């Protein structure tokens, strides 16, 4: 069973109109892309929604396509007619957007303390309330930024303090190691001196020290024997 014929007229329901626009627009862009690929054609499509949002597709460059279109022999008259129709069709929306822009500029000027003519006491009081709320919001944001910076500075300070403490511990460890080495060297020197003293007194000494001592004693005994012989 075939599909029923759809009457071509504006869809009254807003949601249905938006859904239909989205589906038909996607289908149109798809067909334009297929036409450009299959037939090696240069295709450009421009679609404006009822809210003024632009959707476009270009097989190459939209600027090149429009330039080529404007240079076509029969395009000047058609362009003029289309521009007039477009201006007539979009004129209400353009006027509405211009009015909205003018209103926003006026609000911005009043927030800066300008163009206050024509405002009554109630309007001025409401404007003052808006400015006060804005100033409070700015101050709160400023305090948050400052607190963030202070917190970051404290973390950096704590990190530097920990690094300094680690360096102090390393330096103290090096000092203890140096003192330990000096004490060991002094103890070794005292041990050697005590060995010499033990030899003079005839006390037992380490084996490592006995290799040198007998030579010294024999030399001393030889000298005494030589003196006796003389």
UniProtKB/TrEMBL annotation:
Gene3D superfamilies: Transcription factor, MADS-box. Residues 87-177 form the K-box domain. Keywords: Coiled coil, DNA-binding, Nucleus, Transcription, Transcription regulation. Residues 1-61 form the MADS-box domain. SMART domains: MADS (SM00432). Residues 152-191 form a coiled coil. One of its GO terms (cellular component) is nucleus. One of its GO terms (molecular function) is DNA-binding transcription factor activity, RNA polymerase II-specific. It is found in: Nucleus. This is MADS-box transcription factor 23-like. It comes from Nicotiana tabacum.
């Amino acid at each position: 069973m075939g599909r029923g014929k759809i009457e071509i007229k504006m869809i009254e329901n807003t949601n249905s109109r938006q859904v239909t626009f989205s589906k038909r627009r996607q289908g149109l862009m798809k067909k334009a892309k297929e036409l450009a690929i299959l037939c090696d054609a240069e295709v450009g499509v421009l679609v404006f929604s009822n809210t003024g949002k632009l959707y476009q597709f270009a097989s190459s460059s939209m600027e090149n396509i429009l330039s080529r279109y404007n240079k076509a022999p029969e395009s000047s008259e058609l362009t003029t007619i289309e521009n007039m129709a477009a201006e007539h069709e979009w004129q209400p929306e353009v006027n509405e957007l211009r009015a909205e822009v003018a209103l926003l500029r006026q609000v911005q000027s009043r927030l800066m303390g300008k163009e206050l003519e024509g405002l009554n006491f109630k309007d001025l009081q409401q404007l003052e309330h808006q400015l006060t709320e804005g100033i409070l919001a700015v101050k709160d944001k400023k305090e948050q930024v400052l607190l963030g910076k202070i917190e970051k500075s404290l973390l950096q300070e704590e990190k530097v303090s920990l690094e300094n403490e680690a360096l102090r511990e390393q330096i103290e460890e090096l000092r203890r190691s140096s003192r330990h080495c000096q004490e060991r060297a002094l103890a070794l020197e005292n041990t050697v001196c005590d060995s010499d003293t033990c030899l003079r007194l005839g006390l037992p000494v380490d084996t490592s020290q006995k290799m040198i001592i007998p030579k010294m004693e024999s030399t001393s005994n030889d000298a005494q024997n030589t003196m006796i012989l003389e």
